[in-house]
Amino acid sequence: MTTTELIRAADRHFWRDAAVDSRQSFLATGNFDLAANAFGLLMVHNDDIVAPGEGFDMHHHQDAEIITWVLDGALEHRDSGSAESTIVETGMAQHISAGAGVRHSEVNAAGYTSRQKVRVVQSWLPADVLGTTPSHDHHDYNDTLASGDFVQVAGPSSPLPLGVEGAALWVARLHDDLPRELSGGAFVHFFVATGEAHVDGEHLHAGDTLRLTDAGPLKVTGSGEVLAWVMDRAV
After folding, report:
1. In the chain, N or C: fewer CB atoms in 10 Å?
2. Across-strand partners of 203?
3. 230 versus 27: which is more confidently predicted?
4. CA-CA distances (angstroms) from residue 66 to 58, 59, 72?
5. What pLDDT, in 10s, does the model give residues 24-62?
6. pLDDT value at residue 32
7. Burial code of 95-117, b = ≥16 C-beta within 10 A, e = fewer?
8. How many other C-beta atoms can be found within 10 angstroms of the C-beta atom of residue 30?
9. Mean pLDDT calculated for residue range 178-193
10. What angle do CA 139, 94, 37 make, to 5 degrees?
11. How many CB atoms lie within 10 A of CB 230?
């Protein structure tokens, strides 16, 4: 039997400093047991808005699969394995497999005087195999998202395969209120980034999250951008 939990935008965890507004599906700022608070395999799901020229300086990750989806603006990424930076823009996903350990920075690619913020959704999942060689890649999905259907942007059938089995991130830019089908799974984390959506009898607005367990295929309608993690197991 499918069970659901609806988390409204106002009830998500909120963390803020001078440069970043972070709305979190799970407490991720500070010392927390991420695995204990996970939903399925999803340990972190942060909706971050970063001020121009600001971001996160060099910091360390290990044995985590990290997917960053850029909703608006451009993110500049630099890691310890390369002297060059990477720019990830709206409609692009970046995958980092932290493996044995990587240091990297993530900052708003727009300069301080631009007034252009960057908005990203970042997710963390645990790696199946520990201590692998770190790697990162990115891909542009703007063309495939134009159809309004769900597109697998990270997972086994995407250009960005993950180092964790049984998980996939799907994104859709819904329009025309046409029904779109999302595959079900043991755990589905459905997030409305912009606009609104109807799914499983619930009406969701921007910032709302719906968590479903043991879900069959879902019919989704609405207008806006939505992200859904579909997972077949838990941490």
Report:
1. N
2. 198
3. 230
4. 15, 14, 18
5. 998 766 556 788 889 999 999 999 999 988 877 767 778
6. 66
7. bbbbbeebebebbbbbeeeeeeb
8. 6
9. 97
10. 140
11. 25
The more confidently predicted of residues 204 and 83 is 204
Domains parsed from the chain with CATH numbers: 13-127 (2.60.120.10), 143-231 (2.60.120.10)
Say if residues 133 and 99 touch (Cβ distance below 8 Å): yes
Would you call 145 helix, strand, or coil by DSSP?
A: helix
Query: Confidence band (pLDDT; 50, 70, 90) for 122?
Result: very high
Confidence of residue 95 (pLDDT cuts 50, 70, 90): very high
Q: Can you tell me which residue has the tokens 């830019």? A: 173
Q: How many CB atoms lie within 10 A of CB 134?
A: 19
Instruction: Give, in order, the Cα–Cα distances in Å from 115 to each of 54, 56, 68, 112, 213.
Output: 11, 18, 22, 7, 41
Q: Give the 3-state secondary structure of residue 11.
A: helix
pTM summary value: 0.93
Residue 151 contacts residue 145 (beta carbons within 8 Å): yes
Residue 137 has phi, psi (to 5 degrees) of -155, 165
Q: Is the dihedral of CA 136, 174, 180, 213 positive or negative?
A: positive
* Close Cβ partners of 150 (under 8 Å, ≥ 6 residues apart): 170, 171, 172, 180, 181, 182, 220, 228
142: amino acid identity, one letter: N
Structure tokens at 87: 């720019």
